[in-house]
Design brief:
It is a single chain. The protein is α+β, with helices and mostly antiparallel strands. It has 2 domains: about 40 residues; about 70 residues, Nucleic acid-binding proteins (OB fold (Dihydrolipoamide Acetyltransferase, E2P), Beta Barrel). The chain contains 3 helices and 5 strands; from the N terminus they run H-H-E-E-E-H-E-E. The protein has a 5-stranded antiparallel β-sheet with strand order 3-2-1-4-5. A hairpin with a 4-residue loop joins strand 1 and strand 2. It starts with a helix and ends in an 11-residue tail after the last strand.
């Protein structure tokens, strides 16, 4: 019976999403719909995003990344780096990552470094 109520609430959220004007409100509503769906069906979000490392202190074991989508800074823990075989990241490093909610805050996981190809005068 609970699944019926959950699906109905999900359906109502989608209807509200369609009726909203303004891209910022729609983006926020879509984020809430996604979180609701994931809670209903016990799934983690696997949406990859990119950003730039604001700072990371290896001694303290954490830092923050500034998402390219303009949302609030995301926490990075040393354990997330070690999980993908990294020991450190540098300030201003571009990364790709997934956002998960842990202990009431958003954290970066499944981190991958993005290497930007430098264009030399010979390539122009």
């Amino acid at each position: 019976m609970w699944i019926t109520y959950a699906i109905y609430g999900f359906y109502k959220s989608i209807c509200l999403f369609i009726s909203i004007n303004g891209s910022e409100k729609k983006e926020l509503m879509l984020e809430n719909i996604t979180k609701t769906f994931n809670l209903i069906f016990n799934k983690e979000s696997n949406i990859k995003t990119t950003g730039t490392v604001k700072w990371f202190n290896h001694t303290m074991g954490y830092g923050f990344v500034v998402p390219d989508n303009g949302k609030k800074d995301v926490f990075i823990h040393l354990s997330a780096l070690k999980a993908v075989g990294l020991s450190n990241i540098e300030e201003n490093q571009k990364i790709e990552y997934e956002v998960v909610e842990e202990k009431g805050r958003e954290s970066a996981t499944n981190i991958k470094l993005i290497y930007l190809k430098e264009i030399t005068n010979e390539q122009k």
